[in-house]
Amino acid sequence: MNTSPKQAAAQAALELILPQLKREMVLGIGTGSTANCFIDLLAAHKQAFAGAVASSEQSAARLAAQGIALYDLNDLAQLDFYIDGADEADPNLCLIKGGGGALTREKIVAATAKTFVCIAEAHKRVEVLGAFPLPVEVIPMACAYVMRELTQLGAKPLKRADVVTDNGNWIIDAAGLAITQPLALEAQVNAITGVVESGLFASRRADILLLASHTGVVHLECPSKG
Ligand SMILES: O=C(CO)[C@H](O)[C@H](O)COP(=O)(O)O
Predict the structure, then answer these.
(1) What residues sit in the active site (predicted)?
(2) What is the spatial distance between Cα 123 and Cα 135, in angstroms, rounded to a whole number?
(3) 102 in ligand 1 pocket by Cβ < 6 Å?
(4) Does ligand 1 come within 6 angstroms of the Cβ of 97?
(5) Which domains does the chain have, with CATH numbers?
(6) 149 lines ligand 1 (CB under 6 A)
(7) Any idea what the Cα angle at residue 214 is, between residues 87 and 32, rounded to 5°?
(8) pLDDT, tens only, 50-91
(9) Of 195, 193, 202, whose CA–CA distance to 174 is shortest?
(10) 141, 169 in Cβ contact below 8 A?
(11) Under the phi-then-psi rule, with left for phi > 0, alpha for psi from -120 to 50, and beta for the rest, what region is 93?
C-alpha cells in the first residue's frame, strides 16, 4: 500500500517522539485528517505513555476508539508534546489553523505544550500566510460586528455556513489577507470584542514542522524568536 504524504508526516512525528515517550506522559493531540493519521499510528504504542488531551470532540472520539486514555487539561501541568496539522505554515513556522474549526482548543492545548510538532503536506508551506482564509471563532451575537471589523483590517470575511464549534460558537473565514506581520495581526484580530480566538498561530508557533511530499519528509525547526 502506498503511503500518503499525510501518513508520512504522521509517521515522522511518531518516530520523533517515540524515543522520548514515558509511561506517565500525556500527549496533546490536534484535529484534522493529518492528526487522525497520527492518532491511528500512535495507537500501537499506547502502552508507552499515559494518554492524551484532545483539541476537539472529534479527536477525542477517535482517540477513545483506539483505546487511548483521555485526560482533562485542567488536571495536568505542562504537556511535553502537542502534535497537530496546519492549513498554512510560513518560514518562521507561524501557522494558519482552524480549517476544521477547532482552532481555539488547538491553541489552548498548544499553549501548554513544551514542543509543538506540526505535521503537514509540503504544499502547506508558503512564503506569506493568508491565501488560506484565516478562521476566526466568534461569539454568535458578535458575528456581524466582527465581520465589519475584519473588513476594516482588509479582509473579506465570510461566516462559515452551518458550523457550530465545540465551544458553541461560530467561525468567520477572513479571506484576502497577506499576513506579513503575523504577531501584530494576531493581536489585532484577538482584540476585536466578540472574537474568541483567531487561527493565526504566531505568539505560539510550531517548534518543529514536518513537511511531507511523495519524495520524503523535510524537518524544519523554528528560527530563534525575535
Ligand atoms: O487546524 C486544523 C483543524 O482545526 C487542522 O489541523 C488543519 O485544518 C489541517 O487539517 P488537515 O490535516 O485535515 O489538512
Answers:
(1) 106 (proton acceptor)
(2) 19
(3) yes
(4) yes
(5) 5-125+203-221 (3.40.50.1360), 134-199 (3.30.70.260)
(6) no
(7) 30
(8) 999 999 999 999 999 999 999 999 999 999 999 999 999 999
(9) 195
(10) no
(11) left
For 27, 90, 218, the CA distances from 76, given in Å and listed in that order, are 11, 31, 32
H or E stretch at 172:
strand 170-175
Q: Dig out the grid coordinates for 215 from the structure.
A: 519524495
Give 153-188 pLDDT, tens digit per residue.
999 999 999 999 999 999 999 999 999 999 999 999
Which cell goes with 111?
499553549
**In terms of Cα–Cα distance, which of 187, 190, 159 is closest to 172?**
159
For residue 167 the three cell numbers come to 465551544
- ipTM, interface predicted TM-score of the complex: 0.99
Say whether 124 counts as a known binding-site residue. Answer: yes
- pTM for this prediction: 0.97
